[in-house]
Amino acid sequence: MLLLFGPVNDPVQFFQRHWDKMCDDFLYHSGSLILPPIVLQCLVLFDLDRILHESDKNIRLFGLYYPTPDGETVADDINRHYENRTVSSIVNDKLTYDPIEMRTRFESNFRRLRPRQRALVQRVVRAVEEKQPLCAFVDAPAGTGKVFCIETILAGIGSRNGIGLAVASSGIAATLLTGGRTFHSRFRAPLKPDNTRPFNIPKQGDLAELIRRADLIVWDEAPMSNKFHLKALDITLRDPCNSNLPFGGKVLLLFGDFRQVLPVVKHGSRAQQIDVSIKMSPLWKLFEVHCLTENMRILSLGDDPMAQMYDVFLMRIGNGDHIHFVPNEPAAVKLPHEICTDKPIRDLISWTFEDVCEHVGDADYFYARLILYATNDDAGCVNDMVLNDFPGEVRESYSVDYPASDDHELAIQHELLNSLNEFGLPPHKLQLKIGAPVMLLRNLSPKQGLCNGTRLILKKIVDDDLLEVTIMRTSKTTLIPKIDLTSDGETTGFKWNRRQFPIRLAFAATINKSQGQTISRVGVWLRKPVFAHDQLYVALSRVGHPNNIRVVLPDKKFITKNVVYYELLQ
Ligand SMILES: Nc1ncnc2c1ncn2[C@@H]1O[C@H](COP(=O)(O)OP(=O)(O)OP(=O)(O)O)[C@@H](O)[C@H]1O
Fold first, then answer.
1. Neighbouring C-beta atoms of residue 6, cutoff 10 Å
2. Ligand 1 nearest atom to the CA of residue 296, by list position
3. Residue 175 Cα, ligand 1 centroid: separation in angstroms?
4. Is Phosphoprotein set as a keyword in this record (predicted)?
5. What is the pLDDT of residues 241-292, one digit of tens each?
6. Where is 498: in which H helix or E strand?
7. Among 47, 346, 450, 568, which is most exposed with the fewest C-beta within 10 angstroms?
8. Packing angle of the helix pair 345-352, 381-389 (nearest 10 deg)
9. 528 CA distance to ligand 1 middle (Å)
């Protein structure tokens, strides 16, 4: 992580000083065998190289080389021996599951599938068994069992010793899938989409081998991605698969909901936003569409009429079915008074974070609670208010800000940079308290579940450059270093860096950040109304029952705006 994101000025010296602290695993596995330091160094370098490859980097880029010419081969041989591998490590990683356990999971889930879920799973498993190409899109509104179906399909493939690659457009969604990776990291896709070039995957490399051997590719939250990425994936898969069929003849399964956040087009018009949707891709016509319609979260509540009514209401919000809401105001919607209040934000904070002082550091408590707002202007304000009431001493971390170029004229503008509070960057003056929730702002290690949007609990400030945190969803403890985050330079006209912990407080977050997260108690602060497609639906659908949500609106009639791009929902 330090090499990828951190301020390690001299990686070679850093390695020489610390390599011996990184070889505990190898010493443990070597048992009675004594490995000389030079071999241990090779093993550490080999492991580093493997980790860097996940981010499309390698040790040589950091000036690190094996101490002997055959170091890499020696390390690979030893690793293969320990792990009993016969194929490349990247493929091996995908084959480490137990097929018997997979069969048990598949059979247990399969019995519970609802009719539409079952039809989908059977269709996919049959295509894989018969090696038939398949392109399918699964329209899955919130709670209809998308993750449940994906996991069932992956278990079915795993039970036959097959390989299923699970990717997602966002880091958060990737962490919910077994072996999930972001689409960008798995396929080495550039952030700026280009539909004319394949992704950078050499045909003879490990990744190409993995793609060739994969029986299935599942892509969750596909509607959040740009149509050019779909096209580039098509071109990319044909080469390693030696096939001219679309997507190399693979079984490709896209999951998602067009009622959710769309691909980002900065300052884009409605037409531009719609145009980049995968639905506008010429490839879209190849996809057969399956619909999951039963909200399993609501079904699990039993025969609860309020939950059922809330489900119907949510679908109307998502589909922009406003006709009966506010006559003559197509973008306006009157929210039910049961979920609304015009009381001050302080009341919303007390309701959402009830008895917060008794839950300092309580991961389950904070995982279940979040306040959402629509615009970035409101960022910080709610977080600061809650932090004020939160017990404990305020700890401050100041960033070091500097222009990305060496231009001396720019170099004197530190104070100006310190004063900027750009979206996606942590603040210059980061105020924290031990036991408070924070949110990660970068995909540090999707494999460890450290993604942009991952919520954490701050456990300890180890020193000025390191935080000890607990990942809320898994309760695992990990370390977060200070890293260099680059601003896109939109405000300043030039790019600049901020060296800071890549986090923000997470009592409150934007609606967009909450996508894909199930939260038990949600406060929505709509001081300013939503501005993007189906943001209101995303906010309201985080919960399955009206008792678990409170919306603060400035309008006493509880009328607010709902933005829906109907073209994408047809
Ligand atoms: N057929 C099923 N039988 C029993 N439980 C199910 C079934 N399908 C889904 N569930 C359960 O319903 C809940 C919601 O399912 P899941 O998380 O898969 O939905 P989702 O569509 O991914 O939701 P979201 O997009 O809101 O995160 C989960 O607790 C899941 O285990």
1. 16
2. 12
3. 15
4. no
5. 999 999 999 999 999 999 988 887 877 888 999 999 999 999 999 999 999 9
6. strand 496-500
7. 346
8. 60
9. 32
Atom of ligand 1 nearest to the CA of 541: 26
Which residue's alpha carbon is nearest to atom 14 within ligand 1? 143
Q: What's residue 332's pLDDT?
A: 85
CB 120 within 8 A of CB 519: no
Rounded to the nearest angstrom, the distance between the alpha carbon of 147 and the centre of ligand 1 is 6
- Inter-residue contact 520 to 369 (CB < 8 Å): yes
The partner residues of 431 in beta bridges, in order of sequence, read 396
Where does ligand 1 bind, in terms of residues with CB under 6 Å? 112-114, 117, 140, 142-148, 296-297, 300, 516, 518
Residue whose Cα lies nearest atom 3 of ligand 1: it is: 112
Q: Which atom of ligand 1 is nearest to the CA of 140?
A: 21
Tokens representing residue 287 in the block = 């996809």
Q: Are 552 and 524 in contact (CB under 8 A)?
A: yes
For residue 458, report the distance from its CA to the centre of ligand 1, in Å.
Answer: 29
ipTM over 0.95: yes
* pLDDT tens-digit series, residues 355-376: 999 999 999 999 999 999 988 7
For residues 458 and 503, give the distance between their C-alpha atoms in angstroms, rounded to a whole number. 10
Task: Tell the residue nearest (CA) to atom 5 of ligand 1.
Answer: 296
**Cα torsion for 174, 178, 183, 186, to the nearest 10°?**
130
CA end-to-end span of the chain, whole Å?
44
Distance of alpha carbon 507 from alpha carbon 496, whole angstroms? 28
What's the rounded Cα separation, in Å, for the pair 314 and 564?
A: 13
- Which residue lies with its CA nearest to atom 29 of ligand 1? 297
Question: To test ligand 1's pocket by mutation, which of 110, 122, 147, 311 has the most ligand atoms within 8 angstroms of CB?
Answer: 147
Q: In the structure encoding, which two tokens stand for residue 286, read together?
A: 């190849």
Do 417 and 402 contact (CB within 8 A), yes or no?
yes
Pocket mutation for ligand 1, best pick of 259, 297, 298 (most atoms within 8 Å of C-beta): 297
- For 164, list phi and psi in degrees, rounded to 5: -115, 125
Residues 59-83 as b or e (16 or more Cβ within 10 Å = b): beebebebeeeebbebbbebbeeee
Does domain 99-291 match CATH 3.40.50.300?
A: yes
> Residue 487, by phi and psi: left (phi above 0), alpha (psi -120 to 50) or beta?
beta
* For residue 83, pLDDT beyond 60: no
Q: Please name which of 131, 154, 88 lies closest in space to residue 243, comparing C-alpha atoms.
A: 131
Q: Write the CA distances from 116 to 217, 218, 252, integer angstroms.
A: 20, 18, 18
Contact 524, 551 (CB under 8 A): yes
pTM: 0.83
Location of each CATH 3.40.50.300 domain in the chain: 99-291
43 Cα–ligand 1 center, Å: 41
Residue nearest to atom 15 of ligand 1 (CA): 145
Q: CA–CA separation, 154 vs 166, rounded Å?
A: 8
